[in-house]
Design brief:
The structure is a single chain. The protein is an all-alpha fold. 79% of the residues lie in helices and 0% in strands. It has one domain: Growth Hormone, Chain: A (Up-down Bundle). Helix 6 runs antiparallel to helix 14, helix 7 runs antiparallel to helix 11 and helix 10 packs antiparallel against helix 15. The two termini are 25 Å apart. Pfam families: MFS_1 (PF07690). This is MFS transporter. Its main location: membrane.
């Protein structure tokens, strides 16, 4: 695989930077509530399982809506879809901050998830279509935005959460409003009319063996991802670390680790090894990290180390999986992104409440063991589907793929 130099990645049109900036804020929403989970549970007399539903309602609606985002955006265009998504996030994030019950926040997080779905899958297709430097440069830029957002989210959540658990919600609404303005000003409307895709396109896309195997693997991988992200704050709380600032700093470290490996380490590995080989190597390491977290759950220092190491591994896997999906088929990238993201987020939706229920029913370590097993299922799927994934291991993009890429600026 040929990769561009980092300098080329930075030479992008202003439209790409506007979408990337808004993407950073959108991804902040994933980790933003992490440091305030114990505070919300205490303030609203909610159980851990009820509190984990803040992730589930958000990710479930995000996942389901993802299947339809390419249909919507192909009819109204990328810019309108991005703006509707951002507007929904502003409204529902603010509403969550004003809510007086955990049930209310769960409901508003679902609306937030709908906005997130419209924004995220369209943002990926827009960046890949409009960025200079080819698919890999665009995906690295997108993953950099993801990593930065996931890193800043817990830190901002911790800082604002130390004032009140409502603070992170109001903070997100404000930043998303800034992102909305940036898209309005900097993303010019593309004169080319988008080609409408069929409502069934993402579902039919999953029937393609390559995309089907990758989406299924991502579902199980995401269970491990969200066990680490959503359950660990409660495990840390049991060890006496429950304040928003400390939790925010720990997960800020996790996010920084994720950002570093997604932008720098993943391209280094895929320039030397086939993408599927990278998945075969790194996924078992993530399973071992989750296993270690379960075995060492009584040690605060060990658990923090497992969180940071997990971030390093997740950054590599996020970038490589996204590259695989974008290159696995000849489908429009907006369709591939919708199908893959829909399945992936459903895996994330299952993990948080399942983790807290396992912790209550079996032991505090059990969620980490279950996450490790889930990640091993993911690597098994990648290995079983290897013959269908030969295209993702191709040494470089073909001229036809590059030509197709240039036509996709408004396909999202």
């Amino acid at each position: 695989m040929s990769h561009e130099k980092p300098a080329n990645i930075l030479k992008q049109p202003t439209a790409v930077w506007a979408v990337a900036f808004a993407s950073v804020i959108a991804f902040m929403g994933i980790g933003l509530v992490d440091p305030i989970l114990p505070a919300i549970a205490a303030s609203l007399q909610a159980t851990p399982t009820e509190t984990e539903m803040l992730f589930t309602s958000y990710l479930l609606i995000t996942g389901l809506a993802m299947f339809f985002t390419s249909w919507i955006s192909s009819r109204i265009g990328a810019k309108k879809t991005l703006l509707i998504g951002l507007a929904l996030i502003v409204v529902f994030a603010a509403a969550a901050g004003l809510s007086g019950s955990v049930e209310g926040i769960i409901g508003f997080r679902a609306g937030w998830g709908l906005g997130n779905a419209l924004f995220i899958s369209t943002a990926l297709a827009t960046i890949v279509g409009a960025a200079s430097g080819g698919t890999s440069a665009a995906i690295i830029l997108y993953e950099a935005a993801l990593g930065l957002g996931i890193a800043i989210g817990p830190l901002l959540g911790g800082l604002l959460g130390s004032w009140s658990w409502r603070g992170p919600f109001f903070g997100t609404a404000t930043l998303m409003a800034v992102g909305f303005i940036a898209i309005v000003v900097l993303l010019k409307k593309n004169p080319e009319k988008p080609t409408p895709t069929k409502l069934s396109a993402p579902f039919r896309a999953l029937a393609r063996p390559a995309l089907g195997f990758l989406a299924a693997a991502a579902l199980f991988y995401n269970i491990g991802f969200f066990v680490l992200l959503a359950y660990t704050p409660f495990a840390l709380n049991d060890l006496g670390v429950g304040d928003a600032i400390t939790l925010g700093l720990i997960f800020f470290g996790w996010g920084v680790a994720l950002a570093i490996t997604s932008v720098w380490v993943a391209p280094l590995l895929t320039s030397r090894l086939p993408r599927t080989r990278v998945l075969w190597i790194i996924m078992p390491l993530l399973a071992l990290d989750l296993l270690a977290a379960g075995l060492l759950i009584a040690s605060l220092a060990a658990l923090i180390v497992c969180v940071i190491v997990g971030g390093l591994l997740l950054g590599i896997l996020n970038t490589v999986l996204t590259e695989c999906v974008m290159e696995a088929t000849d489908l429009p990238r907006s369709v591939a992104s919708s199908a893959y993201s829909g399945v992936r987020f459903l895996g994330g939706a299952v993990a948080p409440p399942a983790a807290s229920l396992l912790a209550e029913a079996v032991s505090p370590s059990m969620p980490f063991y279950a996450g490790a097993i889930s990640v091993l299922v993911a690597v098994a799927l990648v290995i079983i589907g290897h013959k269908h994934l030969r295209r993702v291991d191709a040494p470089q993009e073909t001229a036809e793929q590059e030509a197709e890429l240039l036509t996709l600026a408004d396909a999202g």
